[in-house]
Please model this.
Amino acid sequence: MLQTMLEALISGLGLIFQWHVLAYFALGCVIGILMGAIPGLGGAIGLVLLLPFTFSMEPVSAFALLLASWASTSTSGAITSVLLGIPATAASQATVLDGYPMAKRGESARALGAAFTSSAIGGVCGAIALGVSLPLILPVILAFESPETFMLGVLGLAMVGSLSGRSIVKGVAAAMFGLLLAMVGFPESQAIPRYTFNTLYLLDQLPLIPVLLGLFAIPEIMELAIKNVSIARTGETRDTRHGLMIGVRDALKHWWLVLRCSVIGAYVGMLPGLGASIVGWVTYGHAMQGAKDQSEFGQGDIRGVLAPEAANNALRGGAMIPTVTMGIPGSVGTAVLMGALIMLGLRPGPSMLDTELPMTFSFVWMIAFASVIATVILLGTVEQVAKVALLPGHMVVPGVLLFVYMGAWLGGSSMGDWVSCTFFGVVGFLMKRGGWPRPPVILALVLGGILEGSFQISTRVHQGVGWLNRPIVILLMLIIVVTLFFAARGVAKQKMSGKPASGEATERNPAISLSFSIVLFILFVWAGITSLTWTPPVRQFPLIISIPGAVLSFMVIVQDLMLLLAAKKNTGMWRKTFREAFEDAWLAQALPFFGYLISILLLTVIVGQKLAMPLFICAYLLRWGHYQKRFAFGYALAGWAILVFFYGQVMGLLFHPSYLAIWLQSVLPAGTPDWLIL
Model:
């Protein structure tokens, strides 16, 4: 058996070392890096774009192109997480917590160097885990049924909720809010729409990407616009090459942490549907709980970058196992890869571990090499990439907003996606200024459907809650209890010591927090009452969410009222208390900025995206940024070119049919190029 495995391993390596295969492999790495660095794209979209080009290719060349692109994406995803505070995917949320604060204090090169190096190690470890586990892992995967899947999802929510600053109550309440958002639309088992407000857009649930970009990207962009500072708030130009090498040494110094998180990422990635959602938080929590001093986490601790980035790349190898061995894709990306397997004449299942074992091991080598090569390329270019952190805020804002809104458009090509992105941008701003953690919302939105389906199947099969006595379920429940206990103890120690809070939500404006918590309380109560009119299977999970959500948000209301009373004692009057709170929240500056965003939506309906975005860029730079006309017009022209040629011609996106575009189609002669039509 061992000899057969070694022969297949060597044969798989030999399949890669062909000139034409290596050429496709290098091309895939470059494409993957670009896809990961642009907000809203990511590995799945890259695979979808590349798949048509593989129809006539041989399997090895095709998968060299596809897997190199897919594996490289998670490495370059650290760029937006560190420099802009925008997670490229749900799996990279945890990187934002410490990567972005490092960029703010002028250490972007160090953060990127550490992220890229740990990603390379993680990718290699994930590939090794794939190779070692292929013949052995099948029984383990099969042991995870609906009860175990449900409890693992709850563990992920508990982990992210416990890493939310000094208020675990807020973290768990935010997770409940995310689960409630996941209940929008048709449930999987019933044809009864929930919380759709009679709109067609919400029938198919809230799309992840617009919500993700709205919650994370827009508040950070707005902060840059208001302050007009560079991302590196120190304003110092540091030696990026020196910072890069410090980051590489950080990864090697904490090699044991990187190795542990790589192994965790590889094996969590093997769980279909859950791996990418929770792996970053599981490893971030592992790094945080294993540290003697946790106060720096969330403030720019390098360990908070190393842990999730190692896991993010390692899960690529792990995610291939259920796809290859059982034909069970755990994500959109692996679903595309499984489709490519079938299209190229390979059938997922036992044959991939028998007659096609050399091909399977070639996948192992491809994932390992792609992570290393992508890291080498990025380390060589990080000196230029890190300079983004030193650009003036007004120069960065229009370009990033263009990619953010077009990233939101990629999913469904619907104006509803832009409205969702803008709406959740407002929500994200209020949450950030009020000290509410945002990561639990996204994770819960991703896991909501999985948790509901697993819970209902478990209760139906076991005729109640008998599944709670399963060994793995009991083990996961113990881990949840231990996680929350140590998180609560850590928060108590931080409060007693006077050290800054760890986690994302370190700011807390009690007036903004109180306003948000009241709205959240009303939302939970309304959701619970509304669900009572539905059939029992449909209302079961919304009630499980809304009742504890209402209780937790009410607890936050009480906490915020106590903080406001304490603030009133210092100011002497309520009017002065609220005025100072709202000034501290930048509400006066935020309203005009959100006015700009609403104008984008209105202009798009009238003149289309190809004109609306350039007009916004030009107006913003002239009126808000006070740049010269020549610069503003040139910037706007560059934005128009990106929309027309990259998103229109290369990506093949369908733009919104504006009133102006409809009129132009009726008056322009036949044969007019599509890119001229707005």
The two ends are 62 Å apart (CA to CA). The first helix runs from residue 2 to 16. The chain has a mean pLDDT of 79. Residues 599-676 form one domain.
